[in-house]
Amino acid sequence: MSITKNVKWSKKDLLSIYDLTAEEINIILDTAEEFKKVSQRNVKKVPALRGKTVVNFFIEPSTRTRMSFELAEQRLSADIINISASTSSLKKGETLLDTVRNIEALQADLIVMRHSAPGAQSFIAKHVSAGILNAGDGAHSHPTQALLDIFTIREKKGSLKGLNVSIIGDIVHSRVARSNIWGLLKLGANVTVAGPSTLVPREFEKIGVRVCHNREAALEGADVVNLLRIQHERQRGGFFPSIGEYSRFFGLNADAAKYLNPDALIMHPGPINRGVELDSSLADGPQSVILEQVTNGLAVRMAVLFLVAGCLEK
Amino acid sequence: MIKNKNYILRGGRVVDPSRNVDGVGDIGVCDGMICSPEKLQGAEIIDVKGLVVTPGLIDMHVHLRQPGQTAAETIATGTRAAAAGGFTSIVSMPNTNPPADSSDTIEYIRRHARTDGVVKVLPCGCMSKGLKGEEMAPVGSLKNSGVVALSDDGRCIQNHELMLHVIQYAKSFDLPILDHCEDEQLTCGGVMHHGEWSALLGMKGVMSASEEMMVARDIIFSRMADWKVHIQHISTLESIELVRNARKRKLRITAEVTPHHLALTDEKIKTFDTNFKMSPPLRSADDRQAVLTALKDGTITVIATDHAPHTETAKLVEFDFAPCGIIGLETAIPVCFTELYHSGILSLSELIAKFTTGPAEVLNIDAGTLAEGKPADITLIDPELEFTVDKETFLSKSSNSPFHGTKVKGKAISTIVDGKFIYRDGTLVG
Questions:
Q1: pTM (2 decimals)?
Q2: Pick the catalytic residue: B59, B183, B287, B306?
Q3: Which CATH number belongs to the domain containing residue A165 in this structure?
Q4: Helices (H), chain A
Q5: Which domains does chain B have, with CATH numbers?
Q6: In this model, does residue A92 exceed pLDDT 90?
Q7: Which residues does chain A have within 8 Å of residue B200's beta carbon, measured at their own beta carbons?
């Protein structure tokens, strides 16, 4: 195969997009392009991580991210162990750091970790020598989701520079939004976040993001719109009066989509609430790249596993 | 203890805000009391040239963790940390285990302070039984056992009617109220300040309004009861505005700020270091600026550390799950000299007042002065001593400090309690 170790990559961990330079993001995207080609072959497996042990340590439930990481690890020929909160000894009172040190003592090379507490992976990475890949930490960061979103946009649009990207939904509780914002800004896109003001903190203006509480204004002239899932429990939290009202004023439907640029992409990190933040006709329509995002996620995760593992050997 | 050793501290810069003194001079110590140097013919002369001589410093907000949480601190280690920080009197907060809501617990604390302690421990009693905010603690009995104030620190009484009654009742026993202001409905599980950095980091924020609502309540109740309410660890711009306005109207409101709230801001949380987690949380740069202004204009009359020891194990966890609080006794003077005096914000006299007359007035105690005939509680400070804070040198049993590794200038080098050196030239005595 044509993929060789990248000498410019020097991080043993992938913790957040905020930590990455534009150059590092591009290294990941370029590497992912190569891995996407591998995924289109008849034999999809490469020996890049043969003999390496990867532990998927999920202390918060996950289906799609975990499945994507697991498949990426298998395609790279790594040995894999899966640990989830229900089976771990965290329930017996062991600290997170002790649990991870035990995992490391089994000579794990990489630990893919999801946790409900922001910064949990950053904290762990300071204390262990295994590579830590953040698969989501509370509302803080979900770097591989942002990378696969950006990969998808770059693949369709060629470049992110000057593109108008609008993220609509529950921004305040979203690690997907936070990761996308940093990545998009670093690559030169114009970012708008939108939704009701209870879910969209105006503090994002301080880092150069347009904050908007009107759907049509957020959609007008957008090249990409990324809809975030609206969780029903936010209504009980008093953030908006009802799902119906949210959908009416902030959901993307055919009428609202007329404000988009004609060739705009419609994205969603999944799982979709059809008819709430996004109408079915658009989710399944020609502008939607939602399933391509899932496919690209595999290539992006192969790329970051490969890069980080290569760094550990140095 | 050698009670009758007499000596003269010669040639230091005496800074005693209680008497408006700031100048080179001598201080006599006779039988554990301050006395006129002229009366001390033939007494030992101790040269303190180049040092600042101040009344023994008072820290009115300390968690000694005994009884019940002695893995983190004890009265023995906490009072030694106080001595090393230049403090001769400290007020112990009542959120021990059991809470200090009974005469028994207060007597236990005072007994251990006598046998294990090296500085004066002034216990603070609970406002509510068990710190539960439901029923009033036995205020009269607590007063008889020797408490100097009442507080539910760490918690805040949410029941307004109970709070009003506590303030009114405390007045009958001449006990000031020290309140940790926090509306729990607005804390919302927050772990840091609600603002720009919580938005960027995706962490749950504690709104400034959580503090401000209760500061406003306390000011209203203080006016109704005509009694002293002291706002603990004030941290927000609007809280400060409320206190400034109340003091302008001559209401009986005072406020303290911690060294960390005047020195640090919420941006520090981006490292996820749990030694930046405390309650109230580190606030925004605007809030910090308001604190500095309020220290200068006299809205804030007290600096208190909120010394809150936690074991390393307790702090070595995810930020969300770490306990709130940091230690402060041994870094207060270095941090405040650096941030307030050497930076030119406060004069030496203004700064020392926040550690002496300020707390003494709130607590109405016989301390914080070098007037003749008063107990010889004295602190010697080297204002120019530069060093890097090193947690390995702390006498506290815990080391949870956000200032580890920080360069500072100014340090208490000797601490005298009732005429006796308990900390001398940077070393604990005996």
A1: 0.94
A2: B306
A3: 3.40.50.1370
A4: 22-39, 64-75, 96-105, 120-125, 143-157, 175-186, 215-219, 233-236, 243-250, 254-257, 280-283, 290-312
A5: 7-52+375-391+404-428 (2.30.40.10), 57-363 (3.20.20.140)
A6: no
A7: 178, 203-204, 207
> A25-65: per-residue pLDDT in tens?
999 999 999 999 998 999 999 999 999 999 999 998 888 99
As given in the structure block, the two tokens for residue A242 are: 């009802």
Residue B418: CA count within 13 A, CB half-sphere = 7
- Can you say how many angstroms the Cα of residue A12 is from the centroid of all Cα atoms in its chain? 19
- Residue A299: give the domain boundaries: 17-141+294-312
Whether residues A114 and A149 share a domain: the answer is no
Q: Determine whether the interchain pair A140/B196 forms a contact, defined as Cβ–Cβ distance below 8 Å.
A: no
Task: For residue B416, give the 3-state DSSP assignment.
Answer: strand
CA distance B356 to B371: 13
Residue type, B280: P
Are A179 and A185 in contact by the 8 Å Cβ rule? The answer is: no
**Residue B306 catalytic?**
yes
Mean pLDDT of A294-308: 97
Using CA of residue B212, residue B218, residue B221, residue B227, what is the dihedral sign?
negative
Q: Cis peptide leading into B280, omega within 30 of 0?
A: yes
Distance CA A103, CA A207 (A): 38
CA dihedral angle for residue A229, residue A235, residue A240, residue A246, rounded to 10 degrees: 40
Q: How many domains does chain A have?
A: 2
pLDDT at A127 over 80: yes
Asked if A110 is an interface residue toward chain B (Cβ–Cβ < 8 A), one would say no
Cα torsion A78, A79, A83, A89 to 10°: value is -130
> Are residues A234 and A248 both part of a single domain?
yes
ipTM field = 0.91
User: Encoding tokens for residue A222?
Assistant: 């957008």
Q: Which chain A residues touch B201 with a CB distance below 8 Å?
A: 118-119, 140
